[in-house]
Specification:
The protein has about 190 residues and is an alpha/beta fold. Helices cover about 50% and strands about 15% of the residues.
Length: about 190
């Protein structure tokens, strides 16, 4: 579904595009863009679609990118640590999930949701607290390179609680839904 036609001018200006540049990218005339923005014509669906595709393409090439919105100080935990240590980190840092690391490599993840599910399954909280993280961890969070566009980040976050940013296979940062929302609020 396309956004409202009235958003074209706002989005164009936000990207720093002239009407001519947008028209060229979309394969329409500059006068058509001007008339659409002033509400003087009702363009066809195909023309509006090409204009929005040009705007999306320009937005993705301008960023922000994963490296622009990632948190560089990654709080992680080892698989051999106790769940009580993970709980302490989650609470003290005000976060909801942690990557589980073995050296420089992510081997799993643990979250408040995972711990709540274990409690719901009948594991007593005292026993859960003494278990090793490796006994309850989930699969590692997905990863993206630092130059991944925010659209790719948003899409992955629909299915995962966090994304790891890997630069040359080394952990460079982490992105959560809160980081994306913070970036969007700055636009």
């Amino acid at each position: 579904m396309l956004p409202e036609i009235g958003e074209i001018a706002h989005r164009r200006r936000k990207l720093g595009l002239s009407q001519s540049a947008l028209a060229k990218s979309a394969g329409v005339s500059q006068s058509m863009v001007a008339k659409i923005e002033k509400g003087r014509i009702s363009p066809g669906y195909a023309s509006v679609k090409r204009i929005f595709e040009a705007l999306y393409s320009k937005a993705e090439s301008n960023g922000p990118f994963a490296s622009d919105i990632m948190c560089k100080s990654v709080v992680s935990i080892a698989a051999s640590d106790k769940v009580s240590t993970a709980i302490g980190l989650l609470r003290s840092k005000g976060i909801s999930q942690l990557p589980v690391m073995h050296g420089e490599h992510a081997i799993g993840s643990v979250s408040e949701q995972t711990m709540l599910e274990k409690l719901d399954s009948g594991i007593p909280r005292e026993k859960l607290a003494q278990m090793q993280v490796s006994q309850i961890m989930d699969a590692p969070f997905p990863s993206l390179p630092p130059n991944a566009p925010i659209g790719a980040v948003s899409e992955l976050l629909r299915y995962s609680q966090a994304i790891l940013v890997l630069d040359r296979r080394k952990l460079a940062g982490v992105i959560t839904k809160a980081d994306v929302l913070k970036a969007v609020s700055r636009l």
